[in-house]
Write a structure and sequence with these properties.
seven-stranded parallel β-sheet, 232 residues, globular, 2 domains, 8 helices
């Protein structure tokens, strides 16, 4: 009689324990039941993407289907550094392709140490390509610009600074009505520019830039809210 009676509590314990719950798998499409970041509103995700380097921002399209249109519509911080492409000359084509494929606006554009081909024909082609960037709708409302060139060298012989500098295309100022921060280095400043009468520029840096006195005076007279001026 003791055997069956003693086994009863054990059966109760097994019954009260119930079936073990299995961990649920998270969906792989980044839906509402997936990762916490994908649960954020599109506006917040767009802000996050806009703060990433260009290459990393483009990679977010692979996270999930929902992320694919976000990179294309988010304000872009386009940094054409060595991480974008190691080849100095091919980087020009990569920038052109990004601007062509991107319907969304760019907030910041940075391209330092731009190197152009020395051959006259290739030099003209490179210069025309750079000029075309600033006619792109993506850069129409640009707020920050950081652009600079490598000084040209000719057969190792020393040349004057003016001969070494690349010309800055006048199209750079197509977005003059929205530019707030501008840094320009190692180039010849265009003699004819038409900055907006309401040039909202607050910070201006010119480093190793050849610019005439009258053009410099015209630029400053259009900057009514300029807080910082750095000339080197």
């Amino acid at each position: 009689m003791k055997g069956p009676a003693a086994a009863a509590p054990a059966r109760k314990r097994r019954a009260s324990a119930g079936p073990r719950s299995r961990p649920q798998k998270r969906p792989r499409d980044g839906g509402r039941d997936g990762d916490l970041i994908s649960n954020l509103p599109d506006a917040v995700l767009g802000t996050i993407i806009s703060l990433l380097p260009t290459k990393d921002g483009a990679r977010t399209q692979a996270i999930a289907r929902r992320w694919r249109p976000l990179w294309r519509s988010s304000p872009l911080n386009l940094d054409a550094s060595y991480n974008l492409h190691r080849d100095e000359f091919k980087r020009l084509s990569v920038v052109s392709r990004v601007l062509s494929d991107l319907p969304g606006p760019a907030r910041c554009f940075a391209f330092r140490f731009i190197r152009l081909h020395k051959a006259k024909k290739r030099f003209a082609e490179d210069a025309a390509q750079i000029s075309s960037w600033f006619h792109s709708p993506s850069l129409r409302n640009l707020q920050e610009l950081d652009i600079g060139f490598d000084l040209l060298e000719y057969g190792g012989h020393e040349q004057t600074d003016k001969e070494k500098r690349c010309p800055l295309p006048p199209s750079v100022f197509c977005s003059a009505s929205t530019l707030v921060v501008v840094s320009i280095s190692s180039c010849d400043f265009p003699r004819e520019i038409a900055p907006s009468p309401n040039f909202p520029l607050k910070q201006l840096k010119l480093w190793r830039v050849s610019i005439s006195d009258d053009v410099f005076s015209n630029v400053l007279s259009a900057c009514h809210v300029l807080d910082s001026l750095d000339l080197s």
